[in-house]
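Notes, p. 3: input format for complexes.
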Amino acid sequence: MILGRGSKNGNDAPYYGRHFDQWRITCATQWHAFIQHKFFLSLADGSLPPKNFVYFLRQDYIFLLQFARAWGQITSKGSDISEIRMATAMMHQLINSKLQMHIELCNDEGIDTQKLFETTENPATTAYLKHFENVGASGDFIDLMAVLSPSFLGYAEIGSFLASLKTAPKYQRWITTYTDKNHQVSCHHIGRVIDDAIVQRLGADAMTTERWQTLCDRFRITTKLEVNFLDMSLSG
Ligand SMILES: Cc1ncc(CO)c(N)n1
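Output follows (236 residues plus HMH):
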Protein backbone atom coordinates (compact mmCIF):
# COMPACT_ATOMS: atom_id res chain seq x y z
CA MET A 1 0.00 0.00 0.00
CA ILE A 2 1.36 3.42 -0.88
CA LEU A 3 0.23 6.35 1.20
CA GLY A 4 0.63 10.06 0.83
CA ARG A 5 1.54 11.08 -2.59
CA GLY A 6 3.16 14.51 -2.19
CA SER A 7 1.71 17.09 -4.54
CA LYS A 8 4.99 18.29 -5.85
CA ASN A 9 5.03 16.29 -9.05
CA GLY A 10 1.48 17.04 -10.01
CA ASN A 11 0.25 13.78 -8.59
CA ASP A 12 -2.97 13.29 -6.72
CA ALA A 13 -2.52 14.60 -3.17
CA PRO A 14 -5.39 16.94 -2.34
CA TYR A 15 -4.75 20.62 -2.96
CA TYR A 16 -5.31 22.86 0.06
CA GLY A 17 -4.03 26.10 -1.43
CA ARG A 18 -0.71 27.23 -2.83
CA HIS A 19 1.00 28.20 0.42
CA PHE A 20 0.17 24.95 2.15
CA ASP A 21 1.28 23.12 -0.98
CA GLN A 22 4.63 24.89 -0.83
CA TRP A 23 5.01 24.18 2.90
CA ARG A 24 4.54 20.49 2.18
CA ILE A 25 7.20 20.63 -0.52
CA THR A 26 9.78 22.43 1.63
CA CYS A 27 9.73 19.58 4.15
CA ALA A 28 9.00 16.74 1.75
CA THR A 29 11.05 14.15 3.65
CA GLN A 30 9.35 14.79 6.97
CA TRP A 31 5.98 15.15 5.25
CA HIS A 32 6.23 11.72 3.68
CA ALA A 33 7.38 10.18 6.95
CA PHE A 34 4.21 11.60 8.47
CA ILE A 35 1.70 10.77 5.74
CA GLN A 36 3.14 7.31 5.06
CA HIS A 37 3.53 6.41 8.71
CA LYS A 38 3.11 2.75 9.60
CA PHE A 39 0.51 3.77 12.16
CA PHE A 40 -1.92 4.82 9.39
CA LEU A 41 -1.07 1.86 7.16
CA SER A 42 -1.81 -0.60 9.94
CA LEU A 43 -4.94 1.31 10.92
CA ALA A 44 -6.14 1.03 7.33
CA ASP A 45 -5.56 -2.70 6.95
CA GLY A 46 -6.76 -3.45 10.48
CA SER A 47 -3.44 -4.92 11.67
CA LEU A 48 -2.85 -2.21 14.32
CA PRO A 49 -3.07 -3.88 17.76
CA PRO A 50 -5.99 -2.44 19.77
CA LYS A 51 -3.61 -1.57 22.63
CA ASN A 52 -1.73 0.82 20.32
CA PHE A 53 -4.97 2.32 19.05
CA VAL A 54 -6.08 2.96 22.63
CA TYR A 55 -2.67 4.38 23.54
CA PHE A 56 -2.96 6.75 20.57
CA LEU A 57 -6.54 7.76 21.48
CA ARG A 58 -5.64 8.52 25.08
CA GLN A 59 -2.67 10.71 24.14
CA ASP A 60 -4.69 12.21 21.31
CA TYR A 61 -7.40 13.21 23.76
CA ILE A 62 -4.81 15.31 25.62
CA PHE A 63 -3.49 16.60 22.31
CA LEU A 64 -6.90 17.57 20.91
CA LEU A 65 -7.90 19.46 24.03
CA GLN A 66 -4.85 21.73 23.63
CA PHE A 67 -5.28 21.80 19.87
CA ALA A 68 -8.81 23.14 20.38
CA ARG A 69 -7.48 25.79 22.76
CA ALA A 70 -4.90 26.81 20.16
CA TRP A 71 -7.71 27.40 17.64
CA GLY A 72 -9.38 29.46 20.35
CA GLN A 73 -6.21 31.51 20.51
CA ILE A 74 -6.37 32.01 16.76
CA THR A 75 -9.79 33.60 17.07
CA SER A 76 -8.16 36.46 18.98
CA LYS A 77 -5.53 36.87 16.25
CA GLY A 78 -7.88 36.82 13.27
CA SER A 79 -8.20 40.10 11.40
CA ASP A 80 -11.59 39.60 9.77
CA ILE A 81 -14.75 37.61 10.13
CA SER A 82 -13.73 34.84 7.74
CA GLU A 83 -10.56 34.09 9.76
CA ILE A 84 -12.41 34.22 13.06
CA ARG A 85 -15.32 32.15 11.75
CA MET A 86 -12.96 29.46 10.47
CA ALA A 87 -11.15 29.24 13.83
CA THR A 88 -14.33 29.10 15.90
CA ALA A 89 -15.73 26.39 13.61
CA MET A 90 -12.57 24.35 14.15
CA MET A 91 -12.78 24.77 17.88
CA HIS A 92 -16.43 23.77 17.90
CA GLN A 93 -15.77 20.69 15.82
CA LEU A 94 -12.85 19.57 17.99
CA ILE A 95 -14.61 20.07 21.30
CA ASN A 96 -18.08 18.86 20.41
CA SER A 97 -17.38 16.19 17.86
CA LYS A 98 -13.78 14.84 17.81
CA LEU A 99 -13.23 14.74 21.55
CA GLN A 100 -16.62 13.17 22.08
CA MET A 101 -15.73 10.47 19.57
CA HIS A 102 -12.49 9.79 21.46
CA ILE A 103 -14.43 9.34 24.67
CA GLU A 104 -16.81 6.88 23.00
CA LEU A 105 -14.05 4.94 21.22
CA CYS A 106 -12.12 4.61 24.49
CA ASN A 107 -15.28 3.48 26.29
CA ASP A 108 -15.77 0.84 23.57
CA GLU A 109 -12.23 -0.41 24.23
CA GLY A 110 -12.84 -0.68 27.98
CA ILE A 111 -11.32 2.65 29.06
CA ASP A 112 -13.97 4.49 31.03
CA THR A 113 -14.21 8.27 30.82
CA GLN A 114 -12.62 8.91 34.21
CA LYS A 115 -9.66 6.70 33.32
CA LEU A 116 -9.29 8.59 30.04
CA PHE A 117 -9.25 11.92 31.88
CA GLU A 118 -6.52 10.60 34.16
CA THR A 119 -4.18 9.58 31.32
CA THR A 120 -0.53 10.42 31.99
CA GLU A 121 0.90 12.63 29.30
CA ASN A 122 3.75 11.07 27.31
CA PRO A 123 6.84 13.34 26.78
CA ALA A 124 6.24 13.20 23.00
CA THR A 125 2.80 14.72 23.58
CA THR A 126 4.26 17.33 25.92
CA ALA A 127 6.92 18.31 23.38
CA TYR A 128 4.32 18.69 20.67
CA LEU A 129 2.04 20.86 22.80
CA LYS A 130 4.96 23.00 23.92
CA HIS A 131 5.55 23.93 20.28
CA PHE A 132 1.93 25.15 19.96
CA GLU A 133 2.32 27.06 23.21
CA ASN A 134 5.58 28.75 22.21
CA VAL A 135 4.32 29.92 18.86
CA GLY A 136 0.91 30.81 20.27
CA ALA A 137 2.52 33.12 22.82
CA SER A 138 4.47 35.21 20.34
CA GLY A 139 3.12 34.49 16.87
CA ASP A 140 0.41 36.08 14.76
CA PHE A 141 -2.39 34.48 12.75
CA ILE A 142 -0.18 33.11 9.98
CA ASP A 143 2.45 31.77 12.42
CA LEU A 144 -0.30 29.82 14.09
CA MET A 145 -1.66 28.56 10.79
CA ALA A 146 1.83 27.34 9.85
CA VAL A 147 2.00 25.50 13.15
CA LEU A 148 -1.51 24.00 13.21
CA SER A 149 -2.13 23.23 9.54
CA PRO A 150 0.16 20.18 9.25
CA SER A 151 -1.92 18.42 11.89
CA PHE A 152 -5.27 19.32 10.51
CA LEU A 153 -4.62 19.25 6.78
CA GLY A 154 -2.17 16.36 7.09
CA TYR A 155 -4.87 14.14 8.57
CA ALA A 156 -7.19 15.34 5.82
CA GLU A 157 -4.65 14.27 3.21
CA ILE A 158 -4.43 10.87 4.86
CA GLY A 159 -8.24 10.73 4.95
CA SER A 160 -8.50 11.51 1.28
CA PHE A 161 -6.16 8.63 0.50
CA LEU A 162 -7.93 6.21 2.83
CA ALA A 163 -11.18 7.13 1.07
CA SER A 164 -9.76 5.70 -2.14
CA LEU A 165 -8.97 2.35 -0.50
CA LYS A 166 -10.97 -0.59 0.68
CA THR A 167 -10.08 -0.29 4.35
CA ALA A 168 -10.62 -3.01 6.95
CA PRO A 169 -13.76 -2.53 9.08
CA LYS A 170 -11.93 -2.64 12.41
CA TYR A 171 -11.11 1.07 12.75
CA GLN A 172 -13.75 2.33 10.37
CA ARG A 173 -15.38 4.82 12.70
CA TRP A 174 -12.13 6.67 13.23
CA ILE A 175 -11.26 6.49 9.53
CA THR A 176 -14.65 7.86 8.46
CA THR A 177 -14.21 11.11 10.37
CA TYR A 178 -11.23 11.93 8.15
CA THR A 179 -12.60 10.58 4.87
CA ASP A 180 -15.92 12.37 5.30
CA LYS A 181 -16.77 14.69 2.39
CA ASN A 182 -17.77 17.63 4.58
CA HIS A 183 -14.46 17.36 6.37
CA GLN A 184 -12.63 17.64 3.04
CA VAL A 185 -14.76 20.64 2.03
CA SER A 186 -13.87 22.45 5.25
CA CYS A 187 -10.17 21.65 4.71
CA HIS A 188 -10.24 23.17 1.23
CA HIS A 189 -11.84 26.23 2.76
CA ILE A 190 -9.09 26.46 5.40
CA GLY A 191 -6.52 26.28 2.59
CA ARG A 192 -8.14 29.30 0.96
CA VAL A 193 -8.21 31.21 4.25
CA ILE A 194 -4.48 30.50 4.67
CA ASP A 195 -3.74 31.79 1.15
CA ASP A 196 -5.73 34.98 1.71
CA ALA A 197 -4.24 35.57 5.17
CA ILE A 198 -0.66 35.24 3.91
CA VAL A 199 -1.22 37.50 0.89
CA GLN A 200 -2.94 40.06 3.10
CA ARG A 201 -0.01 40.17 5.54
CA LEU A 202 3.05 39.42 3.40
CA GLY A 203 1.90 40.30 -0.12
CA ALA A 204 1.49 38.21 -3.27
CA ASP A 205 5.22 37.37 -3.25
CA ALA A 206 5.17 36.14 0.33
CA MET A 207 7.43 33.21 -0.53
CA THR A 208 10.32 35.55 -1.28
CA THR A 209 10.23 37.16 2.17
CA GLU A 210 12.30 36.35 5.24
CA ARG A 211 9.14 35.75 7.21
CA TRP A 212 8.27 32.92 4.84
CA GLN A 213 11.32 30.95 6.00
CA THR A 214 10.15 31.22 9.59
CA LEU A 215 6.72 29.92 8.60
CA CYS A 216 8.35 26.98 6.77
CA ASP A 217 10.44 26.20 9.86
CA ARG A 218 7.38 26.22 12.07
CA PHE A 219 5.54 23.93 9.66
CA ARG A 220 8.47 21.50 9.47
CA ILE A 221 8.80 21.29 13.26
CA THR A 222 5.11 20.43 13.62
CA THR A 223 5.45 17.76 10.95
CA LYS A 224 8.37 16.18 12.78
CA LEU A 225 6.43 16.29 16.05
CA GLU A 226 3.54 14.52 14.30
CA VAL A 227 5.94 11.72 13.29
CA ASN A 228 7.19 11.46 16.88
CA PHE A 229 3.61 11.28 18.12
CA LEU A 230 2.87 8.37 15.77
CA ASP A 231 6.13 6.60 16.70
CA MET A 232 5.09 6.94 20.34
CA SER A 233 1.68 5.44 19.56
CA LEU A 234 3.25 2.38 17.95
CA SER A 235 5.66 1.80 20.80
CA GLY A 236 3.33 2.79 23.66
C1 LIG B 1 -1.70 14.21 16.86
C2 LIG B 1 -2.85 14.56 15.97
N1 LIG B 1 -2.62 15.34 14.91
C3 LIG B 1 -3.65 15.68 14.10
C4 LIG B 1 -4.92 15.25 14.35
C5 LIG B 1 -6.05 15.63 13.44
O1 LIG B 1 -6.92 16.50 13.97
C6 LIG B 1 -5.12 14.44 15.49
N2 LIG B 1 -6.34 13.98 15.80
N3 LIG B 1 -4.06 14.11 16.26
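The two ends are 24 Å apart (CA to CA).
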